[in-house]
Amino acid sequence: MTIRRRLLLSFLLILVLFAVNLVIFYWSNQKRQTSVEALRRAISRQILISGVNQNLNDIQKQVTLLSEITTETPAGGDAAGVAQFKAQLEKVENQIGELQSLSEPETRKNIEAFADAYRKLSASWRIFYENFGINQTKAITELAVRAEPLTQEVLQTRLPQLQADENARVDSASVNFYQVARLTNRITLMIFAISAAVAVGVAVIVSEQLTRGLTRLKVGAALIGSGDFGHRIELTGNDELTELAKAFNEMSAKLYRARHELTLANEQERMKSEQLETVVDQLRKAQDQLVVQQKLASLGSLTAGIAHEIKNPLNFVTNFSEVSAGLVDELRNSIKEQNERIDPKDRQYIEDILRDLHQNVSKIQEHGKRADGIVRNMLMHSRGHGGERQMTNLNPLVSEYVKLAYHGMRAQNTNFNVAIQEDLDSTLEPVKVVVHDISRVFLNIANNACYAAYEKKKRLGDGFSPTISVSTRNLSSAVEIRIKDNGDGIPESIRPRLFEPFFTTKPTGSGTGLGLSMSYEIIVQQHNGAIRVESEIGQYAEFVIMLPKPNSKAT
Amino acid sequence: MKAFGITLIIVLISGSIAGWTAPAGSDIAVVVSRDVPIDDLSFSELRKILLGDRQYWSSNLRVTLLIRAPAAREREVILRNVLEMTEAQYRQYWIGKVFRAESSSAPKSIATNEMAFSLLNSIPGSIAFVDASQVPKDLKVVRLGGLLPGAKGYPLN
Does A128 reach chain B within 8 Å, measured CB to CB? Predict the structure, then answer.
């Protein structure tokens, strides 16, 4: 049922109740008026009967006392007296007539009988009065024989009966009046109370239904407004609130679909954005690689030229320094053979010179070889890398070369010591690599790690335990190798330059600055892998190498 | 009420209009109509009848009291010997009785004994007091205390 119809019916119901109250009010009023009218008529009859009684008693007394008079003149002395007497009788007769008109059907018979008796009495009294003083005998006879029995009948039988009847009727009317008043008051109050209760009940029911519906709509609208588009407002019936709830639900469903579509569109946009970012990142990396490659190519060409030019004179230096060292040894042997012929002072002087000369030649030879090594590295860098790739399990390889780096450092410095921790993934799949080149990468990084850890140990002393951690992970499309030291870490500012050729933080003569540069080339360019560094100043530095699996797409 | 007042005045002054009176010396007979079922009355019963205290001879026969008008000897004897009242007291008594509605009828005042005889014949249950010497033979004379008029000790004399 619609709210409009519900309210209309409620209004009509209240109107009906109002009409019922009005009907009850008019019915009560009518009943009270009827009872009052009955009471008034009964009282009027009672008053009339009292009046009749009074007048009859007066006449009777008048007649009775008159009967004691002996006179020769008419009653009252003249015709006026007779007329007055008749007027009295007529007055009573009129009262009786009025009483008859007011009489109820059930008492009419008694009143008729009374009126009939009175008419006889009245006729007898008339005869008495008309003959009184004229025909005294007839008058007294009439009075004694007819009037007095009739008087007794009228005054002592009929009239008391009427009075009793009317008294009872007045009492009955009075009781009826109060009963009607009580009854109508009760019915009026009861109908009013029922009407009020029904009106209140209807008001409560209608308002409760409206409030419940509006509350559900309010809660539902709040939920939908807060984004819960899946919420549905549950309202049964076919009123306006239900229609409104349906409209809300449809709106919610449409909003839900729209949001879903928007989410999908956003997701697509995000994926496109990510793809673009990936592409941009790849482009940037490619650009960086290109720059690096160009730089390295330039450097390679430069260093190749320089190395080539230096190589020949350096060969002369090293070769002739070796030859010179041999010559010094031969000279010393020759001098020993000519020892007796040389003045001891001179011999000593010559031996000192030869020793110094041998030392100088040895230094020339040593540094010549060092320079030769540098030049060879430069030539190797510039020439690039090569070799046959083969499926290799990297776990033993990295373990071996880290330990090799450790022992190499320890061979140079007996005080050097670090702890090596290994966490190698036993499920690591073999990858296709150039073993020689990858080994150099592991060795370079492990050398740097040992160096960094040992430098920190030298600085902090016994309170610090240098540690190198080696770990491998078998990822979905690549294998991961991590080599970590707990040295001082790498400052953020120099990280971008780590893989540049000749960039080194070591003291002059301790490093060439080509190790990480070569490692970058080997990993990234030769094996299509990736290498990055993670570090926290004062805590650690960790190099992460990613090598693609044979069946995976190169990173 | 006005008419009643006039009537009352008439009644009060009617005493001065006395009619014929019985000669002194003869007894006053108590005469009743033939249908009265009593032959003998006691003095007290007579007094009750005269005072209106007894209004029925029998259940359906009313007493109609016929008394001579004031100044008549019969009335005077009755008032004096039976009621021991003066005329004024007797009138006052009956006015009061009528006004108190103690009686629906009062003594009928009659002017002559002939009128009394006539009424005795026409009114059932009527009783009258007349000179015993004038009572016709067809009328019923009631003994008073067992005595008829003329008897020694008869009280109405």
Answer: no
Model confidence over A90-136: pLDDT tens digits? 999 998 898 888 888 887 888 888 899 999 999 999 998 888 888 88
CATH of region A385-548, choose from 3.30.565.10, 3.30.70.1530, 3.20.20.70, 3.40.50.300: 3.30.565.10
Distance (Å, whole) CA B10 – CA A78: 13
B83 CB within 8 Å of a chain A CB: no
B105 contacts on A by Cβ (under 8 Å): 64, 67, 144, 148, 151
φ, ψ at B132 (rounded to 5°):
-60, -25
pLDDT tens, position by position, B82-99: 999 999 999 899 989 888
Count of CB atoms within 10 A of residue A229's CB? 19
Q: Which residues of B touch A57 (CB under 8 A)?
A: 101
Chain A residues touching B104 at Cβ < 8 A: 60, 64, 148, 151-152, 155-156
| Mean pLDDT value across chain A | 85
Measured CA to CA, the distance from residue B55 to residue B50 in angstroms comes to: 9
**Helix pair A394-412, A435-460: axis angle to 10 deg:** 50
Instruction: Give CA A441 to chain center in angstroms.
Output: 57
For A312-334, what is each residue's pLDDT tens digit?
788 888 888 888 888 888 888 88
H/E run at residue A97: helix A79-102
CB contact under 8 A, B10 and A60: no
- Summarize chain B as % helix, strand, coil (round to 5): 40, 20, 40
At the topology level, CATH places domain A3-212 in f41 fragment of flagellin, N-terminal domain (1.20.1330)
Quote the CA–CA distance of A131 and A113 in Å, as a whole number. Answer: 27
The tokens describing B49, both together, are 């009848």
Domains by residue range for chain B, with CATH? 31-144 (3.40.190.10)
Say if B61 is an interface residue toward chain A (CB within 8 Å). no
Q: Which amino acid is present at A9?
A: L
Domain boundaries of chain A, sorted by first residue: 3-212, 276-382, 385-548
- Chain B partners of A61 at a C-beta cutoff of 8 Å? 4, 98-99
- The rounded distance, in Å, linking the Cα atoms of B80 and A176 is 60
Q: Evaluate the CA torsion angle A367, A368, A373, A379 in order and state its sign.
A: positive
CB-side exposure of A9: number of CA atoms within 13 Å? 10
